Amino acid sequence: MTSPNARSVRVVFAARMKKRRKTLRLSQKALGVLMGLPEDVAGVRINRYERAVHECDSETAQQMADALGVSLAYLYAETDELAELIQEFMQLPAKDQHALLADIKSRSKTNRVR
């Protein structure tokens, strides 16, 4: 039996992948083919992932993220804000990522002290 939390993670993943696929204007079949799935089953498999009927294993989830041009963390982010933050962060050069992370840590420490 699937736990409620595992089900919600699958639903979040499904919704986020579907949204990204539509943003890229890819059909379910086209996404599946980009992931390396056989053409005759690609659309059906993606449809099942998007409806949260089936859960991707870690390798398939990574292939999905790669095909969609996003990080795996983006697909599993619990909120839209966190997903957006992850995407924006990943677009920054490494130097800026380190600076931003240092700033966030500094702000976090300041808020904990209050």
TrEMBL record:
<dbReference type="Pfam" id="PF01381">
    <property type="entry name" value="HTH_3"/>
</dbReference>
<dbReference type="InterPro" id="IPR010982">
    <property type="entry name" value="Lambda_DNA-bd_dom_sf"/>
</dbReference>
<dbReference type="InterPro" id="IPR001387">
    <property type="entry name" value="Cro/C1-type_HTH"/>
</dbReference>
<feature type="domain" description="HTH cro/C1-type">
    <location>
        <begin position="17"/>
        <end position="75"/>
    </location>
</feature>
<dbReference type="GO" id="GO:0003677">
    <property type="term" value="F:DNA binding"/>
</dbReference>
<protein>
    <submittedName>
        <fullName>Helix-turn-helix transcriptional regulator</fullName>
    </submittedName>
</protein>
